[in-house]
Amino acid sequence: MNELNGLCGRVPKKAVFIVMAAGIVLLLVYHISSSTPGSFYDSDSMTSSQEEQRFPQAIIIGVKKGGTRALISMLDSHPQVESARGEVHFFDRNENFRKGLRWYVQQMPFTAPNEIAIEKSPSYFITPYVPDRLHSMSPSTKVILIVRDPIERTISDYIQLFNPDRIGQQKSFNDVVLDGPNHINDRAQVIRIHIVNGDALISNPAQEMIRVQNYLGVSDFFTEDMFYYNKTKGFYCWHKVTDKGDVHPNCLGSSKGHQHP
Ligand code: A3P
Fold first, then answer.
1. What is the Cα–Cα distance from 259 to 257, expressed in whole angstroms?
2. pTM summary value
3. Active-site residue flag, 65
């Protein structure tokens, strides 16, 4: 204090006051800007330090073999959508659910405030307690269900699960599908759901993706031009823009997209 008094004695009091006032103003400006993310978010100056892992704003709950991988991969091309890696199985697998909300959020991609995190776990649709768990944790999460001609879907499931090349033995379609257990979740207590036509996603992906984009409330991105039919694959592929701005052709891997008998 004596030192300060001594200093004040040598420097004019008015100058000390101006320096202190400027310091307070600077501190206030810093506090306001760091506590209102919207000011950065609106100004297009988003920095990676503002990216966080959050509860997903949208979840694809199924159905298995409906085209869930195609849907989430196409969505992931949208600059405002980031998808979780793999299938998270938080709400349907008790061993994951017990790990808690924090674990679930840690499985999510980092997103900026103007972006959407999304995950897909097709067994959510057939697991009875999933709707209650999801609804009680986040009633506002948008839910997407992709459906497909049930016969095509069943053939698709059969080809994937009982492919003799994979399991080493032939199992007839009748044994594993027609006489096997059937599951469906009739407790879909979700309040916001968008149904994607999985057959239309195969024949006209742009049209279905524009509908999904509108439901999610993200910017207009999908166009007819970005999808192209790949004759070798027998399915549509699409142009994907990388973080660096390069454009790459993108098809699903060999485990998706079979010619059905
Ligand atoms: P098949 O592999 O039997 O043809 P899921 O990802 O839910 O398991 O669904 C897989 C199905 O998605 C595939 O079944 C395929 O028919 C369908 N699909 C839809 N769009 C596709 C695309 N662009 N490329 C590959 N498969 C696609």
1. 7
2. 0.77
3. yes
